[in-house]
Design goal:
15% strand; 13 helices; elongated; four-stranded mixed beta sheet; alpha/beta; 2 domains; binds iron/sulfur cluster; disordered C terminus; four-stranded parallel beta sheet
Length: 257
């Protein structure tokens, strides 16, 4: 049996009560996806750093160009302990077997691009950026498909992500030629891109292949819905697809931090 794609996922999205306030941010249907189509690599960097549940919230602060993690209540600096966890989670032995990451939005640890980076002091002006773990993962694996739960709630984005995870898994496990033959049926009306992908597969340029494959999907299906062959290759049953699409809870659960 072919191994399933492996996706790193924030534990709070799976329903684990690990957030700073003692709660979870469960995304309905997500456990089913991991139970049927993907293998999960669950992570909660703040718990793994020994911060406990519940715990005071933390903030990211940029000082002299360096990113620090501060306990908002005490001002205690937690940069070292959280960086250690991020380093372990992004070590080559872990990331070499990953096909994607699904993270909690706006989290100073897990946010993939919308965590607040305060400039100088907490509460000052901020810029959006990656959380400590998500930023480290993006740095280690620029071509890795990454999504947060708000984007997951949008069918088009969810399916583009699923597609990219599947292509990533095929290219990692079985090589670029296998990934190419799996996605070729969807590219017949895009001969230029298909030729480019053939060339990239032939020369073994995996990062460029993955980037190009991701663009092809976006360009070809603006509504984001997969064709039948894509659903089969995702190993998600039509019923799972329908359930996910119809699930109001998926959208409802993902509106607040
Ligand atoms: S967002 Fe990340 S660090 Fe925060 S509770 Fe969820 S998994 Fe843990």
């Amino acid at each position: 049996m072919t191994a399933r794609p492996r996706v790193m996922v924030s534990r709070c999205l799976l329903g684990d009560a690990v957030r700073y306030d003692g709660g979870a941010k469960t995304v309905a249907g997500l456990r089913d996806v991991f139970g049927t189509a993907w293998e999960s690599v669950p992570v909660c960097p703040e718990v793994e750093a020994g911060m406990g549940v519940p715990r005071p919230p933390i903030d990211l602060v940029v000082r002299d160009g360096n990113l620090s993690v501060l306990n908002a209540a005490t001002g205690h600096d937690l940069t070292v302990s959280l960086s250690r966890v991020a380093d372990a989670a992004t070590a080559e032995g872990v990331t070499g077997g990953l096909d994607g990451a699904l993270f909690k939005s706006r989290s100073p640890s897990c946010g993939i691009g919308d965590a607040r980076h305060y400039q100088g002091v907490v509460g000052a002006e901020f810029e959006d950026g990656g959380g400590l773990l998500a930023g480290a993962l993006r740095g280690a694996l620029p071509a890795l498909p990454m999504l947060d739960e708000r984007q997951w709630a949008v069918p088009a984005r969810r399916w583009i992500f699923c597609y990219r995870v599947q292509v990533h898994a095929l290219s990692r496990r079985e090589g670029l030629q296998s990934a190419l033959s799996a996605i070729e049926p969807g590219l017949r009306d895009d001969p230029f891109r298909l030729d480019r992908l053939r060339l990239l597969a032939r020369f073994g340029d995996r990062p460029a292949f993955l980037r190009e494959a991701g663009r092809a999907r976006v360009a070809r299906h603006p509504d984001g819905w997969p064709a039948a062959w894509e659903i089969r290759s995702l190993a998600i049953t039509p019923r799972t697809v329908r359930d996910l699409h119809n699930s109001r809870a998926v959208r409802k659960d993902t509106v607040s931090k």
